[in-house]
Amino acid sequence: MPDDHQLAAKIASAAAERLLDLRRSHSESGKALGAIGDAESNTLILQLLLAARPGDNFLSEESAPDPSRLGQHRVWIIDPLDGTREYGESCREDWAVHVALSVDGQPAAAAVALPAREELFATPAPALAPAPPGRLKILVSRSRAPALAERVAARLDAELVPMGSAGAKAMAVLRGEAHAYLHAGGMNEWDTCAPVGVALAAGLYASRIDGSPCVFNQADVKMPDLLICRPELAETLLAAIAAEAG
């Protein structure tokens, strides 16, 4: 039996391959292809989890939440296709697969696959690249960059860089392509659990934008804001966020 880290990586890799095959073989594009990818990736991931961890529960973007998960210590939190819009655009790479295990509300094992880049980032110890040189770069949502991020960037003379998937943005910080990822304005646990788990394991800072920890497997699955950044920048960014959010 693989351990939880190995299992998360194995399942994310399998879903990544399925999504790439679908993207190559289907004539559909845009929303139609995204819907197919979401459904097929979700089915595969849940089949693999049920076979490997039949006693665990799960929370997935593509399945109705099971209230019984709230009484369990171990819950897998899944986004079968993060960045559905980008997946439907054949030229884009900024979409991902998220597979994470939450134990008592904290990510205990996690994997983020970036299939179009043929990359997999997984716990327990992903490598953290050096910080990028030059001006502070903050990654934001491609489709709904928060006004707060614009104010923070102006305060810190930072550059805002739009990108798709939350997993893609978090892993870009890990790869040393940006200094931070800032979001405010609406996400859910499946968007954030695996990226937060991998980021923390790599030595990055990750929290809500008020500095409180990210807690998972909650009755309300919304997690409306997130900061992932180089640890040496956390204090500066949190102070700028507090000043601009007040």
From TrEMBL:
Binding-site list for Mg(2+): 61, 79, 81-82, 191
One Pfam assignment: Inositol_P
Cofactor(s) this protein cannot do without: Mg(2+)
Swiss-Prot/TrEMBL GO biological process terms: 3'-phosphoadenosine 5'-phosphosulfate metabolic process; sulfate assimilation
Gene3D superfamilies: 3.40.190.80, Fructose-1,6-Bisphosphatase, subunit A, domain 1
Entry GO MF terms: 3'(2'),5'-bisphosphate nucleotidase activity; metal ion binding
Protein origin, superkingdom: Bacteria
Keywords: Magnesium, Metal-binding
PANTHER family: 3'(2'),5'-BISPHOSPHATE NUCLEOTIDASE 1 (PTHR43028:SF5)
Protein's recorded name: 3'(2'),5'-bisphosphate nucleotidase CysQ
Source species of the chain: Chromobacterium phragmitis
